[in-house]
Amino acid sequence: MAAPSKSFTVIADSSIDADSPLTEDLMTDLRDNDIHLEEWLGKDYTAATNHDHDGANSAAVGGTTGGSYIAVGHRMATGNANLQNFCRFKPDVLFATPVDVSLSVCLKHVGDDADEVTPFTATAAKADYMIDSLVFGGALLTASASYMSVANQVNGYLAFKSLGSYIDYGVYAGTGASQQITNGFQPEVVFVWRATDGTSSGPIVKTTGMASTTSRNITSGATTTTAIHEINSTGFKVNTSSNANSAGVDYAYLAFKSFSSQGEKIQVDTYTGTGVAKSLTNSAGFSPQAVFVINTSTTGRTIQFSLSSMYGSKSLDTTTEAVDAHVIITEDGCDVSTNSAVNAAAETYAVIYILGGTRP
To answer: What distance lies between CA 321 and its chain's CA centroid?
Structure first.
């Protein structure tokens, strides 16, 4: 929204007492104040009708939960077509999973076709998990008795919307040759996955704690040097892997870094495993609602994802899709088990703590 063209002037009492004349300055101030208020409210604002203010229609702003750019929530499915209403924005990217059922975490971006998502455990790029679309307020489910739409099943959600130099979602065209993807800042974490349908062996993630050219296939847990092979001051580079840069294929990405603003927080920390169960303390000092743990040193390690609404954490193992207890969210961080995915002796890990603007 542009700034008003006229300044607002506070008119002194002495200018409007009974003995004061109607001066040109007074009349100008009165007129300019009216223009200032009209433009600030919305230039075409009419009392008692909907108006556009700071990019949001007043009729569309409801009492939903979540922040303006990050939301973590859980809602019960009905088996019917329904809105899973857990945020105050239209997400660009959504991570979704049932909180206590063995079903893969999946990714959906705003450009996906109806019902299509990218499961973390599938070798095909897309699958029908009954998430029809991303809409203002959250996600629209399809009527079904399966996947995310099972009646009385509680689903967990982590949603992101682009935010300046902290969170960026986008789609780029693959070239088959190494290329720079520019988003205007240096991220600490980058996810890349196929934006459109077709064969793929899984989404990719890279953190700044990984070796310079290394990223990790989320589906297999394997490290690779041909997918996301660099994070730099203006974004990241992708190499020649079909999971990140085939010619003629579009790819979606989510890049972010640590920040704190108006109650919404991301903190990316690192730690070294000991092989002994341990408690991790979030260096930014907040109680997270969502946590990723990613091994940054050893191939074959699966990624762990936990929501505060889960009974334990969600395993992203490609064969079991099991609900386990390898990552438990605590008031100031998380506890990790002795499992090698989160705590092998002398191996290094990134832990991503996330908090939405308000708790659902």
So the answer is: 22
d(Cα 28, Cα 154) in Å, to the nearest integer?
60
Greatest alpha-carbon span in the chain: 87
The DSSP 8-state label assigned to residue 163 in this structure reads: B
Structure tokens of 66?
A: 């979540």
Q: How many CA atoms lie within 13 A of 95 on its CB side?
A: 24
Query: What average pLDDT is seen over the chain?
Result: 86
Q: What is the pLDDT of residue 226?
A: 95
**Neighbouring residues of 49: CB distance < 8 A, sequence distance ≥ 6:** none
Check residue 63 and give its pLDDT.
35
- Strand, helix or coil at 149? helix
pLDDT at 25: 85
Distance between CA atoms of 207 and 231, rounded to whole angstroms?
A: 8
Q: Where are the alpha helices (DSSP H) in the chain?
A: 24-41, 340-343
Decide: helix, strand or coil at residue 131: strand
Which residue from 185, 182, 226, 177 is spatially nearest to 206, judged by alpha carbons? 226
* Number of Cα atoms under 13 Å in the Cβ half of residue 332: 6
Q: Which residues pair with 314 in a beta bridge?
A: 305, 323
Q: Is residue 161 classed exposed, middle or buried when 0-12, 13-18 and 19+ CB atoms within 10 A define those classes? A: buried
Do the beta carbons of residue 89 and residue 71 sit within 8 Å? yes
Beta-carbon count within 10 A of 6 CB:
18
Question: For the whole model, what pTM was predicted?
Answer: 0.80
**DSSP secondary structure letters along 103-129:** ---EEEETTSPTEEEEETT-SBS-EEE
Which residues are registered as beta bridge partners of 128? 116
Query: How many Cα atoms occupy the beta-carbon half-sphere of 236 within 13 Å?
Result: 33
Q: Rounded CA gap, 87 and 91, in Å?
A: 8
CB 71 within 8 A of CB 91: yes
- What gap in Å lies between CA 218 and CA 259, rounded to an integer? 24
